[in-house]
């Protein structure tokens, strides 16, 4: 039986995007169950559907027969364990360690960028990007750190992705690339090229196409406007 992956709205759910893109990219078959973000209240359809699977009430959730795997990183690690024949992580141990460091940084850091630049694939907010960078030095600082850390990996890479071929690390940074693009955040040339590469990657393109078809306005995910 193939896996089942529970995800949220593709336009907004950056965490859902990551394992979905990994599975698409590596051609791991799965059934997708999209649970709309009607609200995050206890009686919402979203929570009523997700909480029985995941006590934390968040997506993504991966179901593999009787095993339920919650949390993006645990899902990606589980898939890597289940498919040792596929290079979900770089095969070289030094690169794999560097990839895990970047993933850990994405997982626990960049709070200010994540707060000010929520993922919203179908929208474009260049003015807000400028205002936030002007008024929030902490965002500017994170932007520099992000650019520096990705550029360092890209300059050493023997391919177009962070560690040569596409890996979990690139999937983790894909929503970040979309945030930088949609808020028109200035980047180094190296990072700009990488953003372009990531956006052209098959799984990422498929996710973006689906997100653009959604046309679903979720007010709680739209701090900068009242309608599409
Ligand atoms: N650390 C969790 C975070 C997941 C997460 O926050 N997902 C959001 C959607 S992108 C969610 O389900 N939020 C529901 C809520 O906050 O109640 C993971 O990586 O899976």
Structure keywords:
Glutaredoxin, alpha+beta, 4 strands, binds glutathione, Glutathione S-transferase Yfyf (Class Pi), Chain A, domain 2, 2 domains, four-stranded mixed beta sheet, 228 residues
Compile the SSE list and pairings.
Elements: E1 3-7, H1 14-25, E2 30-34, H2 45-50, E3 61-64, E4 67-70, H3 72-82, H4 93-108, H5 111-116, H6 126-135, H7 137-156, H8 168-182, H9 189-200, H10 202-214
Parallel strand pairs: 1-2
Antiparallel strand pairs: 1-3, 3-4
The structure holds glutathione (GSH).
Ligand identities: glutathione
How many separate helices? 10
CATH topology of the largest domain: Glutathione S-transferase Yfyf (Class Pi), Chain A, domain 2
By secondary-structure content and strand pairing, the structural class works out as alpha+beta
Taken together, the total number of domains comes to 2
Principal-axis shape equals globular
| Rg value | 17 Å
Protein model, in words:
By secondary structure, the protein is an alpha+beta fold. It is built from 10 helices and 4 strands. The chain has a 4-stranded mixed beta sheet with strand order 2-1-3-4, with helices on one face. α1 packs parallel to α3, α1 crosses α10 and α8 crosses α9 (189-200). The N and C termini lie far apart (39 Å). Bound molecules: glutathione (GSH). Glutathione is lined by residues 8, 13-16, 40, 57-60, 71-72.
């Amino acid at each position: 039986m193939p896996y089942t992956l529970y995800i949220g709205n593709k336009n907004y759910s950056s965490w859902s995007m990551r394992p979905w893109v990994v599975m698409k990219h590596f051609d791991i078959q799965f059934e997708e169950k999209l649970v709309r973000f009607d609200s995050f209240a206890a009686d919402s359809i979203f929570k009523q559907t997700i909480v029985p699977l995941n006590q934390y009430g968040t997506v993504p959730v991966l179901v593999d027969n009787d095993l339920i795997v919650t949390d993006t990183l645990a899902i990606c690690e589980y898939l890597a364990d289940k498919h040792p024949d596929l290079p979900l992580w770089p095969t070289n141990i030094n690169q794999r360690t560097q990839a895990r460091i970047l993933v850990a940084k994405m997982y626990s850091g960049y709070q200010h960028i994540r707060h000010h630049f929520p993922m919203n694939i179908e929208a474009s907010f260049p003015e807000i990007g400028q205002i936030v960078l002007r008024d929030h030095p902490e965002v500017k600082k994170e932007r520099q750190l992000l650019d520096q850390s990705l550029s360092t990996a890209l300059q050493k890479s023997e391919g177009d992705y962070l560690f040569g071929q596409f890996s979990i690390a690139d999937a983790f940074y894909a929503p970040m690339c979309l945030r930088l693009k949609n808020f028109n955040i200035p980047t180094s040339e190296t990072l700009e090229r990488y953003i372009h590469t990531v956006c052209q990657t098959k799984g990422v393109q498929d996710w973006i196409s689906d997100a653009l078809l959604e046309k679903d306005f979720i007010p709680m995910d739209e701090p900068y406007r009242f309608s599409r």
